[in-house]
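ok so i was messing around last nite and threw this chain in just to see what happens. nothing serious, just curious
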Amino acid sequence: MREKETTSESGVIEPDNDTPLPDLISNIEAFIEALQAEEVSSYGNLISRLKLSPSDFEQYINFEDGSYTRNYIHREEKFELILICWDCNIETPIHSHGGQQCWIYHLNGQLEEQLFELDNNNQPKLKSTHLVSSNSISYMDDKMGFHTLKTMGNQRALSLHIYASPICQCKVYCNDRQRFIEEEIAMD
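result:
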């Protein structure tokens, strides 16, 4: 089994290329079974074995013009899988992950991720920006700060979000109030 893997400061998972990859996981059912059998500490390694395509998610794909949708795939006490369908030129507000670890497997399209830390006035301050595209993996947790994702160009995108334990609420930055507020997570 693949032991080593690092997460860069940007949140992009950089696999250990010196250790051979075990079998790829090429369908969502096998991925769910693997997550059920492993500890959270192994999730990054499992996700690095994914070889999925948008066609594997046809029954979950639900685009909405001018927005992004969160679509449940699987939820249990140990983890949840959410497919996010991104319309063109869409951006999330700056947000936390409600204390949960989150891995993002990018299925198609290109997203820009911006990471933020809080300044002395508890306002978000840009820490880093990176682009993520098809078949790449990124990671985020609240220890890293806050982040936002947005689609690039005139192309829709799909991303699979894997949370260690279901995420029920998170902190979202409200531009009008110039502060973070707690929000319940709504699914489409």
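not much to say yet. The chain has one domain: 5-184.
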